[in-house]
Amino acid sequence: MSRDLHIMPPEAPLAMPAQNFAQGFRDAQAPTGGRRPSAGFWRALAFSPAMAATLGLLWVMSDWFSAEGINLVEGILLTLISFNFFWISFTVCTVLLGMVSLSRQEQPKREGRPQPLRVALLTPVYNEVPWNVLGNARTMLEDLQQRGGQHHYAMFILSDTRDPEIAAQEQASVEALRTTLAPGLELYYRRRPANTDRKVGNIADWVSRWGADWDAMLVLDADSLMTGRAISRLTDALARDPGAGLIQSYPQLIGAQSVFARMQQFANGVYGIAFAEGLARWCGQEGNYWGHNAIIRTSAFASSAGLPKLKSLNGQDKLIMSHDFVEAGLLRRAGWAVRFLPRIRGSYEETPPTLIDHAMRDRRWCQGNLQHLKLLGSTGFRAVSRFHMFHGAVGYLMSPLWFALLVMWALIGQGKDASVLHYFSPDNPLFPQWPEMSETRHVLIILVMYAMLLAPKVLGVAALPLSGVRYSDFGGTRKFFTSFLSEVVLSVLYAPILMVQQMIAVFRTTLGIQKGWSPQARDGGSYGLRTLILCHALETVSGVALSVGILAGLVSVWLAPIAISLALAIPLSALSGVSAGAARRMVGMREDVSEPAITRSARLYRDELKRLIEGKGIVTPAE
């Protein structure tokens, strides 16, 4: 077997020029006629209540502090609370919007037969376990063939793998799979000699060399899995909407075995449905892109979404890391609609198995999302596209803000005569006057924050029947609510730890300590005590300090849940990777009762291909 396996169709070049962020751009291909539905009403329903609630809280708190005027410290406290409260309120409003949308009995439109499209299924890979990727690829191709239809599909494995051993297994797996595929199924493979510009360059290379032959490309991740029905529905949606440049599905999590992964999968499958529905409503034609499980009009992407390099402070060219948000903004800038269709089910991805693996992935995403702040002033972006990019960055900036708010609440303590500041500096005239916060007011604010954080979960549970999912699907109503309570307790325990980890990621990115863009550890691992201590030292010290303050009467007892979580960060992180029977009993999922047929087929094909490759004596990569 050649070490440089290359199985591709004849090249069909398609120009993909880099866009200029300093100049506006309108794609001449984008349709200009026809009236598209407006999302203005839904946006008003999402944003207005959140703004009103935040202003109301700000007015009440300002009245508390205004007896002697609001000083600088009080102003900072009010700003932190208001900023955090708006984003919490906005999430609640989005979920409520989703509930309203799900409850509407809309009659499906009668639509004609869509125009046939040639669709390339693109799977970029970088040092992945090859039989997992190719087992999924075979499953999707066969499911599409069984479903039939007028569209034409082909799978492209676009490799950027650098490890020679994994590359050898990858190529052996491709050759083995091609010999077993049913007639008519197309599987192509190419490995780039250098992974120039990482995933962005990988996709751009395919578009510029083969894109002209394909009407659309469905971009997958290495762990993506989609049913033939989901792929066909996305393709039909794109074919019926000539003004759509990109249509994003709602990827649901699968394959979770560990405590942390099962918690994430339960939350995604229960709370995420109403949130996704609400998001789709207020986004309208100006949705976002999450980098995979979305179908894209190839010609629109090539002409409108080529990414330039960004200039760093030292004048060097830097790659745009979180490319997906920017590509969605560029498509919309050029006149193409970017839609989100959460009701297309059967779109799946996997999730990191442990808290540390999740934090490692978050550091990569943080690096890319904070980069978006530099693009907010770019010419031509729509307001909603700018909001998507800002919101992605705020998701990480919220963590240091929450930590700062936590520190300030802890320092305020339980009153003038029982606060950390008064204890350490009782007669210091130079220290600014601290806000007067009685225990009642203190508790009220914390209770409101806790209630708002819990509200999306409770609303998501209430909305679940509206989506067609029954509580009994989880093994019975009692089992469902037991899992719900377990997920709530676990999320309360893990949230403060994730807050600190995201804060660390923000500071690492800001200080330039976070370098590169390493591939995601999909299988994770069990981490030793030394790694756990090094990773969670800051949480542990913070938690112990808070706990001591609470026991000494200097810190409000209402911060005890946060203090306990941070103090126990090391054992909680170790628990996150447990995947024995305890994890299954702790958080049950619908997939435990009725596993989707597509995941069963994928697991079968993965195992079959693994045995075949290992039987040839090819070295197995560390999983």
TrEMBL record:
Q: Where in the cell is it found?
A: Cell inner membrane
Gene Ontology molecular functions: hexosyltransferase activity
Organism expressing this protein natively: Ruegeria conchae
Family in the record = Belongs to the glycosyltransferase 2 family. OpgH subfamily.
**Pfam families reported for this sequence:** Glyco_trans_2_3
- Specify the protein name: Glucans biosynthesis glucosyltransferase H
Which InterPro entries does the record associate with it? Answer: Glyco_trans_2-like (IPR001173), Glycosyltr_2/OpgH_subfam (IPR050321), Nucleotide-diphossugar_trans (IPR029044)
Membrane-spanning parts: 41-60, 72-100, 393-412, 443-464, 484-507, 558-580
